[in-house]
Amino acid sequence: MILEVIATCAEDAVVAEANGADRLELVTAVTEGGLTPGIGLVRQVVKSVNVPVHVMVRPHSRSFLYSEADIQTMEEEARAIEDAGAAGIVFGALTADRRIDEAALARILAASGGMNVTFHRAFDELASLPEGLHTLLRYPRVNRVLTSGGPLPAPQAASEIRQLVELARGSSLVILAGYGLTLETVDRFIAETKVCEVHFGSDIRFGRKGLSPIDPDRLSALSSRLKAYY
């Protein structure tokens, strides 16, 4: 069981690693769903931890439909993130008819070098999640999909996530479940969905608030619980 934790600063990253995070998703503007952090922060975090750092590549929070200028920006960001030593990027792009923007995806994959690529929760806005997953399975460079199984919190879409896990079985694509997971409900959720990776943000922060620092005791308790699945 892999535990991915959202980090928004270098302190977050260090505390997350020290208390059991297996991987970090580094973002800024967490209240907007996460945007690309500054390259200085990326370099600092990569130097500060030993766990893999996956960096959000998202130029704005208006939508997941991107212009040519947006795509060029993301290409430049992906190259800079790889140069900074990050292990991966987190990216997603859609078309106006709520399908995966394969043209944008191909360009970002080409710009991402040897990094891991996660397709983020833009996935949850697709017209058909199974169809979207089949599209992503045609791109072996995409390692995982971050999803809550649709617009609702993940615990309310356990059956949808279980279906995605089954569809991805035998491939190199991993279903990373996130949004709405809690320390108290994660055991039941894992049993229902059979996911092998989970993504946590606000629930492991003081007051369970997205803008608060990480609560080391709560994160450590979560990590200890997940070790039972190793």
From TrEMBL:
InterPro entries: CutC-like, CutC-like_dom_sf
Pfam families, per the entry: CutC (PF03932)
Cleavable signal peptide: none
Classification via Gene3D superfamilies: Copper homeostasis (CutC) domain (3.20.20.380)
Subcellular location: Cytoplasm
Assigned GO CC terms: cytoplasm
GO MF entries: copper ion binding
Keywords: Cytoplasm
Family recorded in the similarity comment: Belongs to the CutC family.
Protein name: PF03932 family protein CutC
